[in-house]
Amino acid sequence: MSQATDKFRYHRDGAVAIITIANPPVNALGLAVRQGLWQAIDRFEADDAEIALIVGDGALFLGGADITEFGKPPVEPFLPDVCTHIENASKPVVAAVHGPALGGGCEIALGAHYRLAVTGARFGFPEVNLGLIPGAGGTQRMPRLTGVRPALEIMCSGAPLTAEKALEIGLIDRIAEGDPREAGLSYALDLLKQNAPVRRTGALPNPAHDAEAFAAARATWEKKARGQVAPLKAIDAVEAACTMSFDDGIREERRLFLDLMETPQRAGMIHAFFNDRKVSKLPELKDVTPRPMAHVGVIGGGTMGAGIATACLLSGLTVTLIERDDAAAEKARQTITGNLDAAVKRGKLKDTAAPLSRLSTATDYAALSGADLAIEAVFEDMAVKQEVFAKLDTVMKPGAILATNTSYLDINAIAQTTSRPADVIGLHFFSPAHVMKLLEVVVADQTARDVTATAFALAKTLQKTAVKAGVCDGFIGNRILSVYRGAADRMILDGATPWEIDDAIRAFGLPMGPFEMGDLAGLDIGYMTRKRKAATRDPRDIVPTWADEMVDLGWLGQKSGQGYYTYEGRKGTPNMAVMPLIEAARAGRPQQSFTKQDIQRRYMAAMVNEAAKVVDEGIAARPLDVDVTLLYGYGFPRWRGGPMLWADMTGLPALLDDIRIWAETDPYFWQPAPLLERLVAEGRNFADLNEGTPK
Ligand code: T1G
After folding, report:
1. Which of 430, 449, 469 is at the close of a domain?
2. How many domains does one find in the chain?
3. Does residue 107 have an active-site annotation?
4. pLDDT in tens, 20-78
5. What is the 3-state secondary structure (H, E, C) of 603-629?
């Protein structure tokens, strides 16, 4: 009485037909699974089973449609038809959910007539995180069960619901403990005893058209998901559930879904989805075991050190923080306590007692003798860092890892001051270190592979996204940033205003432009970087003299109330007093006007050209590592996938043509990247260098 393929099993347990989906690792609803489900329902209809139970094998119910199929011609049976095929069964069908039931997985459950979840199950529609909307009936069935408000929230945010919440809003019928198959079987038998009828969600009346809810959702998500199309289309699809028949609503949902499938945003967000997983898959780390890292030493309790300590404490690690004296150590403890209090306010932490119980501070390095890993976050000065590493080298136990949080210094030079250069690595956190997701793992010449593997394991523990970087000034992100910032300064000298540039870059999708970003971070940071680089600056390079003059005038940005903008609170107004400084700097240079598109094109061309050099030099392993870095550390819009995908989609030949034209007047800044020239000559894209990334 059983039938099985490698993707699903059908077997009888008395009156119950049990349909098990087994498509590891996430039971994605690829073609074979859709075919199997369709046939299983046909089999159920034909045999004398009285009720059917659908369960997932392994760690979860169903992870949704098979994302690797997106962008290819859809193959029948289409998922919405499978859901309707389940719903049209003449005998009751129960879904028993454990773990995630996401996207199409949730829609399969909605196609069933009854739904049970075991504790810990999660229900979600994350399609907007892929530039899509639910496309298998979810926008039509869920509102019929829950009303429009919960449907709008879950489909626009992409955030999953707990089983308890799903029960509360009427998405499911029962919660049970333990094994989903056993719990599902027991529920199915209860339903049989009750003579429970077939209960088709699609046959339920339209949900009430809550005009206020739709207006509020559109206002909220136009802001929250600025630039993104999918959330607003999800609202349209849910509204169709209120105003159309079920069949027309299904057709409208399909139309909206297929339109989104063709958008660059869907390509961008799926590129980002797979890169999130590929970025930590490095051939040199395959089968390498990380070292233990339960006890972390942090040297320096300033903003970065305290942030790093907070991130470690929030992730359950034990922290010993070293400062130069008791007062500084106490100040660091207060900063960390403040960070943890804020995490409690944000709902990220129940209370601060547990993490604080794992924090100790000291002024004597000997306190680090038991630490598995030390992370130095002291003043950005080579001599200071080398002194710290010499001390660490004497006190840290054999096998402990010595890491530096430097944002640009030569880690090879730091490693050389120790007797164990193989244990030295860079861990470049981004401020605030307990909030920002990006961690650049900077691998020095002699860094051991298991040290790098440990850094990636630490990032996972800290729920950060690690990117492997090579040693150079600025590693991946800051090196590329300094170049596209340079392009903005050159556009100022050529006739654009800071405010035109900020407007254009915000319109492109970054949260803010380079000049408002400078005002936020403090204009003195750029000033100090320029002073640091002055000795080695190429004479053909330009210096934004107006920017130095602004700092000399005490215009530091938000912290001084005046920079490129003057500030009443956080609101900034263009500071026209900057223009005379800019005009003086422009003296004699030919001027031109810039459209928004001109500004975006130059800004992005500079970003991509330097990124190509970073990849070519091996500072970034692949173009995808640049994409991930810019997404998680520099606010690059996720729905564009990353600068390297943007370049591929824009067309590398046209980009190279532009760079060559600009090089005629500024050959120093616009030197085409050799890798870009090679790819264009070979008719290839950056994506071709990411080997194995699904199209
Ligand atoms: N399709 C194809 N591959 C997938 C996949 C999917 N839906 N989900 C994960 N993978 C791969 C992933 O790339 C990785 O591959 C491996 O599985 C393990 O993933 C019509 C249109 C389910 C919570 O958006 O959220 O349904 O790197 O490391 O940490 O309305 O995967 O090993 O080669 O993330 O245990 C909606 C996306 C699709 C869910 C499990 N569904 N996936 O987390 O494993 S659109 C989603 C996840 C849709 C319908 C619409 C998570 C997970 P590799 P992993 P995990």
Report:
1. 469
2. 3
3. yes
4. 999 999 999 999 999 999 999 999 999 999 999 999 999 999 999 999 999 889 899 99
5. HHHHHHHHHHHHHHCCCECCHHHHHHH
Query: Can you tell me which residue has the tokens 């050099």?
Result: 613
How many angstroms separate the alpha carbon of residue 599 from the centre of ligand 1?
A: 37
Confirm or reject: Cβ of 614 under 6 Å from ligand 1: no
- Give the residue from 435, 453, 469 where a domain finishes: 469
Q: Of all residues in the chain, what percent carry a pLDDT higher than 90?
A: 95
What pairs with residue 53 in β-bridges?
18, 94
Residue of 61, 67, 84, 460 to mutate, ligand 1, most atoms within 8 A of C-beta = 67
Measured distance CA(161)–CA(126) in Å, rounded: 11
Neighbours of 104 (CB within 10 A): 29
518/455 same-domain check = no
DSSP of 54-73: EEE-TT-SB--B-GGGTTS-
- What is the pTM (predicted TM-score) of this model? 0.94
Domain that holds residue 339: 293-469
Is residue 277 lining ligand 1, measured as CB closer than 6 Å?
Answer: yes
Same domain, 493 and 464: no
Q: Whose CA is nearest to atom 28 of ligand 1?
A: 277
Residues 308 and 367 in one domain: yes
In this structure, the answer to whether residues 458 and 580 fall within a common structural domain is no
Which pLDDT tens digit goes with each residue over 485-507?
Answer: 999 999 999 999 999 999 999 99
Same domain assignment for residues 522 and 647: yes
Q: Would you call 127 a catalytic residue per the annotation?
A: yes
Residue nearest to atom 55 of ligand 1 (CA): 26
Which ligand 1 atom is the nearest neighbour of the CA of 59? 35
Q: Which atom of ligand 1 is nearest to the CA of 66?
A: 1
